[in-house]
Each structure stands twice: as C-alpha cells, then as structure tokens.
UniProtKB/TrEMBL annotation:
Cofactor(s) it depends on: pyridoxal 5'-phosphate
GO molecular function, one term: pyridoxal phosphate binding
Family per similarity comment: Belongs to the class-III pyridoxal-phosphate-dependent aminotransferase family.
Classification via InterPro entries: Aminotrans_3, Aminotrans_3_PPA_site, PyrdxlP-dep_Trfase, PyrdxlP-dep_Trfase_major, PyrdxlP-dep_Trfase_small
GO cellular component terms listed in the entry, alphabetical order: cytosol
UniProt keyword terms in alphabetical order: Aminotransferase, Pyridoxal phosphate, Transferase
Protein name: Aspartate aminotransferase family protein
UniProt-listed Gene3D superfamilies: Aspartate Aminotransferase, domain 1, Type I PLP-dependent aspartate aminotransferase-like (Major domain)
Entries under Pfam families matching the protein: Aminotran_3 (PF00202)
Entries under NCBIfam families matching the protein: PRK07483.1 (NF005685)
C-alpha cells in the first residue's frame, strides 16, 4: 500500500516516469497524449529544454532567498515582464506558489485596500455560482461549487453568490446573447443593493470558467456591464485567470478579449507550466499606492513567495512564448481543435454543447440534446471517461456531478500550446473512441 495520502484513497494510479512534448509515459512506457495539462498547467508540454536550462542555471546560482530579506534578479525581471504585459495599470506583481495563494492574496489585498482608504465597512465578497477559485478556506469560501464547499461550509468565510454567465443552460427562449449577458450581469447590481453597496469589497469571477463548468466564456457585453457596475458602486473587480490566463485562450490575459481591466488579476498554472509551482496576484497602481502610501505594509505573506527558482522558470516560459510565437499558435491550433471537435461531435447524441476559447475547450455531455437532461451523478460518468481515456492513451479532464442542481457532466480540454495538427487529430480520435466506449457500455448496462 502506498504511504502517499492520495486524494482518491482507493483509485490506483499509474506512475509517470517521463514526459516529452505533448506526451507523458508511465512505468511500462505507455504513452499518454496530454490533452488537459492536468488542469491546464503544462502549456509548453513536457521536458522543455529552455525551461530546464533556466531552472538549472538559477539553482546553481541561487535557489531561494527569503523575500523578507532579499529580492532576486529572477523575481524582479518576472514582475517587470508581467507588469509590462498585463492590461492597463496592473503593475504590481505579488509572486506566490500557486492559484489558491494568489486568490487568498487578492481577497486580502481587496480587504486591506478598503481599510487603508477608510472604508472599513466593506466586508462582503460577491462571486458566482458554478465557479472555482481554489481550495484554501478563503478561496473556497468565495467559490460557488456546492459539492466542493459542502463539508466545509460551516467554517468558510461567507460570500454572496449570483448567477454564472452560462448561456447554454440559462439563456431564456427568445433572449439574445447580449440581453442574456446584461440580465445576469445586472444580478450583481441587485445583490449590491440588497447588501448595501457601501458594504461590498469586491466581485470575483473567472473570465472563462474552468473547473466547474468546462471552458465557458461569458457572452459579449457581460464583463463590460460588470465593470460598469463595479465602477458605479466603488467595489473592486478581481478576475481569476488562474486557469484561463497565461495564453490559454489566445491572449496572455483572458480579460484582454473582454476589453476590460480588473483591479486585481490572479494567474498560476501556465505561468510555471508545471516546471515549478508559481502563481501571481497582480494589482492595479491605485491599490498598491493605497497600501504604499498608507500603512506601507501588505499584511500577508508566504514562506515561498518571490521564489527565485520558480521565477526563473516562469521567465523562461514567457520567453518561450515570444521565441516560438505561441500566442498566435494557441489561436491557430485552438481554431483547429474547435473545428475538429465540431466536425466530430456537433451531431453526437450525447454532446449538447461544444465551447471555449483558444486551446481551452469544453464538451458538455447530456442524456438528450433537446431537453439537455444531464447524466445522473450515480453514473460516475466522469470517472469512467477518465479511466477509459487513460486506457486509450489520452489524458483529458472530465468533471461532473450535479452542481447547483443543473450542471451535469463535461470534458475539459487544455492541451499544450505546441500541439501539432497530427496530434490534434490523435486527440479527437482518442476522445471520440473513449466517449463512445463509455456510452456503449452504459447503454448495455441499462438494457
Ligand atoms: N482559481 C481557478 C480559476 C482555478 O482553476 C484553480 C485551480 N483549478 C485555482 C484558483 C486554485 O489553484 P491551485 O490549485 O493552484 O491552488
């Protein structure tokens, strides 16, 4: 028996022994096409020579120096590059070890900002149903996934939830996408009026929803209206780009495609591309200045923040983006993936929706396309697809269960940005084979 406390206590895992490009290999040398990067992490694929080299060089010089005593060149350069590339005045980069830490930092900065500017009554956070912002208590507290929250609910910091922007499920008949987006965005205003707008610190949302809904972008106009409401009532807008940021949707920051700027953005996953654990909270000058000119101290911190080796790895990731023009590649291959998925699955009886942006795509699985009836949680559909796909040499990210009573199951795809046309063919072939095997075996069991 393994002494590792695996999160699925009873599901045996294969041992990954090496990675090369878009493939991972297990202890028997079986290859797996990595179509999800775990959870949208491995954007450069595996065994990238530039990142490997950058890590080695950094470790040989300086692996780590505590951020309370020193900064490092790698950390300074990374912050400079992220600030230069981030929209507008998102200029102040707080480097941490991952997504949840970045979100915790964002929530705490939002709160401290209002303490600094003498609005201490702003204590509420608003977020959306069907959202995920991390598993630490604060991040889970703002998350809208009831299943993930359930055991911990009594000990979570409270947050108020409004509707997700999820047109496939929630748009009314006769409503245009735009009208739908305005209606659900206006729920933020209604919630503010309920709570007293002067009592709300921030609204947090994922520009493209990842883990709890399967690559769902908002409809046009939604985020413009959200930004307008935040400005009107003086609360902060936190955009969580931990999964959809760092090029995944075809622009370095997903919010660029919404033509808005957050007050705080969080990134992680693709930033270290799996080579090092790293995340960042990037704050606007207004927020930074309030702290710098106020108490002068952001009352937060983690032992591994501003980590030199992790920063060197992330710098090499950003360098690879430039050198190999990977953002353009994401847009090109993203289109190729969307076309292949549509060709293969647009009339599939069990696939209700194909959506996403760039190399961040989701398929929603339904029992019936007309009624959009989801599969029941007891079918364990996600686990079966994951297992079958692995048996077929494909790593994809199926998720599911009933969330908020409606959502059902989906498969998330987030392959490395370096994926070739042939590998996209292989991905869709293996996915199609795996899905059909699972649906056939379920039909047989039901017969
Ligand atoms: N926010 C979002 C949008 C995420 O998708 C995730 C991870 N799936 C997190 C936060 C938490 O990141 P981490 O697992 O690195 O703590």
């Amino acid at each position: 028996m393994s002494q590792v406390f695996h999160r699925h206590c009873h599901t045996p895992l294969r041992t990954a022994v090496r990675g090369e490009g878009v493939y991972l290999f297990d202890q028997h040398n079986n290859a797996y096409l990595d179509a999800c990067g775990g959870a949208a992490v491995s954007c450069l694929g595996h065994n990238h020579p530039g990142v490997r080299q950058a890590i080695n060089t950094q470790v040989e010089q300086l692996a780590y120096a505590h951020s309370g005593f020193f900064t490092s060149e790698a950390c300074e350069q990374l912050a400079e590059q992220l600030a230069a590339k981030a929209p507008g005045d998102l200029n102040h980069v707080y480097l941490v070890s991952g997504g949840s830490e970045a979100v915790e930092s964002a929530l705490k900065l939002a709160r401290q900002y209002f303490v600094e500017i003498d609005q201490p009554q702003r204590v509420h956070f608003i977020s959306r149903r069907q959202s995920y912002h991390g598993n630490t208590l604060g991040a889970l507290g703002v998350g809208g996934n009831l299943w993930r929250r359930a055991p911990f609910d009594p000990i979570l910091t409270s947050a108020e939830h409004i509707a997700a922007c999820y047109a496939y499920r929630d748009k009314h008949a006769g409503e245009t996408d735009y009208q739908y987006g305005q209606r659900v965005a206006n729920e933020l205003e209604q919630k503010l009026l309920e709570l007293g707008p002067e009592n709300v610190a921030a609204f947090i949302a994922e520009p493209v929803v990842g883990a709890t809904a399967g690559a769902v972008p908002a409809v046009e106009g939604y985020f413009t209206r959200i930004r307008e409401i935040c400005d009107q009532y003086g609360l902060l807008l936190i955009l969580d780009e931990v999964m959809c940021g760092i090029g995944r949707t075809g622009t370095l920051f997903a919010q660029e495609q919404e033509q808005i700027q957050a007050d705080i953005v969080t990134v992680a996953k693709g930033l270290g591309a799996g080579y090092q654990p790293i995340g960042a909270m990037i704050a606007s000058s207004r927020l930074y200045n309030a702290v710098a000119n106020g108490s002068g101290f952001f009352q937060h911190g983690h032992t591994y923040m501003g980590h030199a080796t992790a920063s060197a790895a992330a710098l090499a990731v950003l360098q690879a983006f430039e050198q190999d023009q990977l953002l353009a590649q994401v847009r090109r291959q993203g289109q190729g993936l969307a076309e292949r998925l549509n060709q293969r699955f647009a009339s599939h009886p069990r696939i209700g929706d194909i959506r996403g942006r760039g190399l961040f795509m989701g398929l929603e699985l339904v029992q019936d396309r007309d009624s959009k009836l989801p599969f029941a949680p007891h079918t364990a559909l996600a686990a079966r697809i994951k297992q079958t796909a692995m048996d077929n040499g494909l790593m994809c990210y199926p998720m599911g269960g009933t969330i908020d009573g409606v959502q059902g199951h989906h498969v998330l795809l987030a392959p490395p940005y370096i994926i070739s046309d042939n590998q996209l063919d292989e991905l869709v072939d293996k996915l199609s084979l795996s899905l059909n095997q699972v649906f056939h075996s379920m039909a047989k069991e039901a017969a």
